[in-house]
Write a structure and sequence with these properties.
Elements (H helix, E strand, L loop, with lengths): L1 H13 L34 E4 L12 E7 L2 E9 L4 H17 L2 E3 L10 E13 L4 E11 L7 E10 L5 H24 L1
Parallel strand pairs: 1-4, 1-5, 2-5
Antiparallel strand pairs: 2-3, 5-6, 6-7
Helix pairs in contact: 2-3
Length: 193
């Protein structure tokens, strides 16, 4: 008899227990400004190809939260801003769309590239957030490219900075999307030369 009474007494407390942070009202993502048209055939037998690896990231970017460089030695996160998937994957997909559209290269997955002598793109996504001091969205990518048929590796740093109106989720999404597209365009132009 005591057990049911204890359970009934604890029932109102069940609504107070939380096992995680409250999710934000919406999730952020990236949209490529350059895309291959729907229905366009791509064939690695007749066109050059490239494999794009998901970039490595520092731990500050290995999260769904949007970092803000608050001071030169401290990082905070934008309140109520969260990516729909890891930033490195979002950037890799945006880069793949941009490179395919701007260069005509066939972008292959790592599984598809086995046996295809494609170029290889890897790198580190060093910045992918906001800078509170300059009120800018900042995307920095250190690229490593091995061109098809070569054994040497070319490296180059790409960066874009876009002014933002505020340090909040809508400004972060728009600014980082624009900066990421600028970096992807620079990257495609470098790879396509």
């Amino acid at each position: 008899m005591k057990t049911p009474l204890i359970l009934i007494a604890m029932l109102p407390l069940a609504g107070c227990i939380s096992f995680g942070a409250k999710p934000p009202p919406s999730l952020l993502t990236l949209t490529s400004s350059s895309q291959v048209p729907v229905g366009q055939n791509q064939d690695s037998a007749t066109a050059r190809s490239i494999t794009i690896q998901v970039p490595t990231t520092p731990l500050a970017l290995a999260t769904a939260r949007v970092p803000v460089q608050a001071t030169p030695t401290s990082i905070a996160y934008v309140p109520d801003a969260q990516w729909s998937e890891p930033p490195a994957r979002l950037f890799a997909r945006l880069s793949a769309d941009t490179i395919a559209a701007r260069t005509g290269l066939v972008v292959l997955s790592t599984v598809q590239s086995v046996g295809d002598p494609s170029a290889q793109l890897a790198g580190e996504l060093r910045n992918f957030g906001l800078d509170a001091g300059t009120r800018e969205a900042v995307v920095t990518f250190d690229a490593s490219l091995t061109r098809a048929g070569k054994t040497s590796v070319e490296k180059r740093r790409f960066e874009a900075r876009v002014p933002v109106a505020a340090i909040d989720a809508p400004s972060a999404a728009a600014g980082i999307n624009q900066a990421a597209n600028q970096v992807a365009t620079q990257l495609a132009d470098w790879i396509g030369r």
